[in-house]
Amino acid sequence: MAPPSFPWSSFPRNQHAAATITISSDDSGGSSVHSIIDVSSDDEATSKRKWSREDERAILATIADLHSVNGGVIPPSSTILDELRVNGALGRPGTSSRELSKKVYNMRRKFATSALKAAANGGKLKPRTKHRDKKLYEESQDVWPEMLEDGGYSYWEAKAARRSR
């Protein structure tokens, strides 16, 4: 008789496992002070991040303000960085214009991806979207409203055209 098949499809995918670590100050196993630490993948992701949530919020707010002042044109990263420094809104000391430019590029790409996913889902992000990503998506709508209108399609189309040259 064949063993029963296990219903793998009934398990949710992309679940993050949590681990509990117990630290003891006594090697002999006797009574001692124990520390219990819960570790999850979100903690690991947070420790790898270079930019805080407050920095991302400040960058998006500054770009949105400068975007409206400049007639819909996003200024260069050096101008954005100067504005962030004047306002004292950036929590990362020593940030270069190049680092900020890369961060803005990554946030724009992430927003285009989220806009495309939301458009495919009736204009809403999926319920399993992380809270941080939902907030970035909502705040990015003021910065790149044209991407929201077409679901990020124009961004990806332009990127494909640049690659095919």
Automatic annotation (TrEMBL):
Biased composition (Low complexity): 20-39
Recorded superkingdom: Eukaryota
Location of the region described as Disordered in the Swiss-Prot/TrEMBL record: 20-52
Residues of the Glabrous enhancer-binding protein-like DBD domain: 48-144
Membrane-spanning segments: none
Family: Belongs to the GeBP family.
Name of the molecule in the record: Glabrous enhancer-binding protein-like DBD domain-containing protein
